[in-house]
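seq as requested:
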Amino acid sequence: MLGLCRLLLAVGVVLAHGKLLPEATSRSMVSGFFVVSGYLMMLTLSTNYGRSIVPFYWNRILRLYPLHIVMCAIIAIAFHGFVMRRFAEYAEAFGDVGPFMTVVMCLLLLPRYAGFFNKPAWTLPFELAYYILAPFIFRLGWRGRLAYTLAGVAGFAALRPISDIAQPFGLEWTASGTAAGFFASAVYFGLGALVFDMQRAVGRKSLTRPAVPVVKGLCLAALLTLMAATSRFVPAGALDLVLGWHGVLVNAIAVSAVTFLLLLWDGSETRLSKRAGDLCYPVYMIHFMFTDYLIDVPRFRAILAGVAKTVAWPDLEFILRSAVALAGALLLGHLWLVVEAHTIRRLRQRPIRGVHGEQDAEGVRGAAGARASSSAL
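struct tokens:
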């Protein structure tokens, strides 16, 4: 079920960018992504790499950068006019470093500039920062992982009101490229890493009890219910009065559902869930081209508005927008996985074979279905 959970988190981001869900839900899904990444990096280090740091870094680079660079190139070529406007926006927000350096810093996934072409990439610098530290955090054991998490809390508290850390990631404060963002992400990564320790302490035998699949199903149901309850079809005022719904609660539900699912995950995955997990990162990275760039093309926007007007249902425009983005991202995501399997993944295997003689950089013994060495995104 972990693969389905990961894809569901990505779908939540897609629907939010399609204007069906609020930003609070999207940022809560990002919080969930970070928890999953924190767990998966500890798992893959314990099963695939041991003390071999260089292969781990090499495979993380090949996991994140190729699709990021491809998406930047596609957006720069296909939506050149929109990109040119963003140069002025970035110069005003972060200072004018010139178009060339802006593009270079974006391609390198540096803070603030990572999302220049493709906005969802703004979260990747936080992933990279964790990847750099992950091998050392792993070697320090559970005490080191606890210290890393508490350091994130303390660092954030020194920069922002501590209550802000309970908000969906970066919702009430500027996360991209700020120290507060890196400290807050450390808390979520650290939580996932500690779940890895808690799971080992509990033992695998306890994960085979009959009630476990039911609880895991409830975790997925909680994420689906969260998206439904925060959608644009539920009056926000009524929801606030009845449930006291706000950002902290949205974030708490998303993070709790992911945490419990990870704690109960036994490493087994169905073929469907495994494929869903593989599609998570491509869907996350590809969808924005549809939800924000394509929708700004006058002819396409006119078609959606015309259909909604014909049906006399204004919200239909947002449903169609999200449906096009999700379908396009799934289709192109599948295509990317096919291409990746015959090119990039072969490069990703070589360091592992050279050091350990093991099977696949993405294969994790005892967790073959979930590709635990992949990032959550």
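The chain has one domain: 2-355.
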